[in-house]
Amino acid sequence: MGLLLDAGIVVIVLIVVGVVAGMYNGFVVKRNRVNEAWAQIDVQLKRRYDLIPNLVETCKGYMKYEKGVLEKVTQLRSSIVSGSVQDKAQANNALSQTLKSLFAVAENYPDLKANQSFQNLQQELAVTEDRIAFVRTSYNDYVLSFNNAIQTFPGNVLAGMFGFTQMQYFQTPEEEREPVKVSFADSAPSAGMGDGGSGNAGTNQPAAPGPASPKGKSSKPGK
């Protein structure tokens, strides 16, 4: 009788160990999938990072009065390869919006639009943007799966014991989920503004592409 009891205890222990080992390995697999997807995002962010200097140099020769836009692109470029997942997500979203502004302003420069280097860079950046969106979806799916696994019972008990913590989504901030409104009243200096200020951005300038305020006010884009 005692032998059967000991055998039963051994079987129970083996089952528990097997369940714990299986859940632990599941956490590791899910975490590795997240890390692999993040590595793919990083590759695309780095590719965009490498393309931007050539884009800025190409535009400089044509967009003489759009110094503010070019400087903003350069500034945001430097912030996209450092920081946390959320830091990079915010920098990526801000850079995407600024690049849209840059390409919209380029519509006013036919010679630039016809430049083959500019066209190639525009195409490569568009492809990169699509790839970032694609791998971001995969990454967020893996993060969701991992976070669900470590937050639901009994996974939450084991996750705490083994030091597994929630991972961040690569997401769009709430304020950037509205439809894109392109306005250059604050970001594109006028032709006579040598100091880069924004106080008279709309004076004697052709209207830039994008929605315009009915009375020329530029404090906020129109809804």
Q: Structural class, please? A: mainly alpha
Number of strands: 0
**The CATH homologous superfamily:** LemA-like domain
> Helicity level, as a percent range?
55-70%
Short description:
By secondary structure, the chain is an all-alpha fold. 64% of the residues lie in helices and 0% in strands. The radius of gyration is 26 Å and the shape is rod-shaped.
Helix and strand arrangement:
Elements: H1 2-60, H2 67-78, H3 85-106, H4 110-114, H5 116-151, H6 155-162
Helix pairs in contact: 1-2, 1-5, 1-6, 2-3
What does this structure look like?
By secondary structure, this protein is an all-alpha fold. It has six helices and no strands. Helix 1 (2-60) crosses helix 6.
Task: For the structure shown, list the relevant keywords.
de novo design (two linked rop proteins); 0% strand; single chain; 64% helix; mainly alpha
